From TrEMBL:
UniProtKB keywords: Membrane, Transmembrane, Transmembrane helix
Pfam families to which the protein is assigned, alphabetical: Acyl_transf_3 (PF01757)
The protein, known as: Acyltransferase 3 domain-containing protein
Domain Acyltransferase residues, every copy: 22-343
Species: Streptomyces lunaelactis
UniProt GO molecular function: acyltransferase activity, transferring groups other than amino-acyl groups
Transmembrane segments: 43-65, 86-114, 161-179, 214-232, 244-263, 284-306, 326-347
Highest taxon listed in the record's lineage: Bacteria
InterPro entries associated with the record: Acyl_transf_3_dom
Length: 363
């Protein structure tokens, strides 16, 4: 399994797109930033501060439920079409580099075209960093394929459907199911974040709004504490990852996402204090798949480039604190991500049937 890091003057208000949810946009942008930061610095408390993957799956689940007012096959085809071209660009660039480095793929390389399971990759650190984010696309693809069934179950049996992935996660953690590696990997991801995807669907269906106002603030912290208890029982520490404890991750993400969706204000635009970030939020939402797919290899490249600074003696002698800081690496990583947006981001426009845009930071 691939492993899973004083008020300013108001800016001009960006016109709202039909159906655009600025609160969701802000959550998605924060989730992407946190993912990049975590994969760079590896602080174990970051996924506790903001469970990015749970948030991203919940937002996608809400959008999927909204789209399923149209015929299911049409919606699935549209979602898959929007997902795959950015992956194919990554596969073309990364696959070519791996072949040049000596990789000889077999038939399993077809998973770079349709990632129903984890695609193979060259046994090198940079190739592993390139392929690491693909678990998200594989999980997303399966959620999309299963969404019509999940939505039907949610409408008939809301709470059993919501809690089923958490129960499955506990069953898997106790080892009651012995499955082949690829199936176990996919099922583990489904059980870890499936409840968040279904939470997004429940929010879109109005199921959460039917709960008493006190219910979510009372229930969600208890679920999050259960996640912390589970993590503590499995030796979670500052040197470990919450991702390595799927049930703890599932419980913590479920509780945190439940709170975030409970708050869920209706914003016609970002609040005045946040409007200065509107173009950044718009850009990250317009290029979310590109940022996620390329961020890991950009971090690898940034770290490799920054390590070379130690060979400059004057820097090592005069500003060692700067060379040891993670901030320059983060800025360099985002500069490389920006370059990837310019080079490859057009694939998202192509996939959505839009005209290509180099830097879509405006609505």
């Amino acid at each position: 399994m691939i492993p899973r890091t004083a008020e300013a003057p108001a800016a001009p208000t960006v016109p709202q797109l039909p159906g655009r949810d600025h609160y969701f946009d802000l959550l998605r942008a924060l989730a992407l930033f946190r993912v990049v930061l975590y994969h760079l610095v590896g602080w174990a408390w970051l996924p506790l501060l903001f469970p990015s993957m749970g948030v991203m799956f919940a937002l996608a689940g809400a959008l999927m439920a909204r789209s399923l007012k149209r015929p299911a096959l049409q919606v699935i085809r549209g979602r898959v079409r929007r997902l795959l071209p950015p992956l194919w660009i990554l596969g073309a660039v990364g696959g070519t580099a791996m072949v040049v480095a000596g990789w000889r793929p077999g038939l399993s390389a077809l998973l770079w075209i349709l990632p129903l399971s984890d695609p193979p990759f060259l046994g090198a650190e940079w190739a592993a960093d390139l392929a690491e984010p693909l678990w998200y696309l594989r999980a997303y693809l399966w959620y999309v394929l299963l969404s019509p069934l999940l939505l039907r179950c949610l409408r008939r049996l809301p709470w059993p459907t919501l809690l089923a992935p958490l129960a499955l996660s506990a069953v898997l953690s106790f080892g009651y199911l012995a499955l082949p590696g690829r199936i176990d990997s996919a099922l583990t991801d489904f059980s870890t974040f499936g409840a968040c995807w279904i939470l997004g669907m429940a929010r879109q269906e109005g199921i959460l709004s039917r709960l008493p106002r006190y219910a979510v603030p009372s229930l969600a912290p208890a679920v999050m504490l259960a996640g912390l208890w589970w993590a503590a029982r499995h030796n979670f520490s500052a040197d470990s990852e919450l991702d390595s404890i799927p049930t703890a991750q599932a419980l913590w993400s479920f509780g945190a996402v439940l709170l975030l969706l409970h708050v869920s204000p209706s914003w016609d635009s970002l609040p005045p204090r946040l409007r200065r970030w509107d173009r950044v939020v718009t850009l990250l939402n317009s290029r979310a798949v590109t940022v996620y797919l390329w961020h890991n290899i950009c971090i690898f490249a940034a770290a490799s480039l920054w390590d070379r600074m130690w060979s400059i003696d004057v820097l090592g002698e005069s500003v060692p604190w700067l060379l040891e800081s993670w901030v320059p690496e983060l800025l360099l990583a985002w500069a490389l991500i920006a370059l990837c947006i310019l080079l490859f981001g057009w694939a998202e426009d192509f996939a959505a049937g839009r005209g290509p845009r180099l830097w879509p930071d405006r609505t």
